[in-house]
Amino acid sequence: xxxxxxLLSAVWLATPAMADPIEVDVELVLMVxxxxxxxxxxxxxxxxxxxxxxxxxxxxxxxxSGLLQSVAVTYVEWAGTQEVVVDWTLLQTREDLDAFxxxxxxxxxxxxxxxSIAEALAFGAETINANAYLGLRRVIDISGDGPNNAGRxxxxxxxxxxxxxxxxxxxxxxxxxxxxxxxxxxxxDVYYRxxxxxxxxxxxxxxxxxxxxxxxxxxxxxxxxxSRPAQPEPVPVSFDPTDCRVGEKMWEQxxxxxxx
Length: 260
Fold this sequence. Notes:
Layout: H1 2-14, E1 22-33, H2 40-54, H3 57-65, E2 71-78, E3 82-91, H4 94-104, H5 117-130, E4 133-144, H6 154-162, E5 167-172, H7 188-196, H8 213-226, H9 246-256
Parallel strand pairs: 1-2, 1-4, 4-5
Antiparallel strand pairs: 2-3
Helix pairs in contact: 2-4, 2-8, 3-8, 5-6
């Protein structure tokens, strides 16, 4: 018996202690669409837009306005699968923000895949739960130019994420360029409000023109980091907000037209 206790004690002493999580004002996952509907120009606009926003005075002021004056951020590009471009990084100073932005300006390969918002949300929640930070708020920010058309059911996944106390914000890209223009959903912002986003203070900021993208990203980062909810704007509705499988239906119709 004494020998067993001694062995257990030796194992415990040899096991590294779990480091205490680093407390931050917010844990923020930036989920950026790189599905096949996005052109190379759009992909570059997104990277450059995020880089410019991170270097802005207003985003730095938002970081400084927090109780802890620190945020943890990761940048993930998603389509049917996900690729971590910048892993979890602690942002406190202008130098931190600039280094994060500089990483986004490196070269990259565009993806050619379908759109699974559901899997992106699942990945976002998993990476939040597995990181080394403890945020006063936990947020997934997801951008995209179309509805979910692959993977699990988006409403089911959204509800699972919200049940973990994670807020979901949306940046629907309602522009018309490249392949995405053929499968455009006029009321994508309504779809995001009805089927994707949720949680206390959650918001949707639609991008109607690529020239407005960097400003929209800056606005949303300030609101997410400083926790300033956007005021809802009235939106004319033609999309049926109860039909959260509209993306899957569009994909089946597309296949019927002879597309892969």
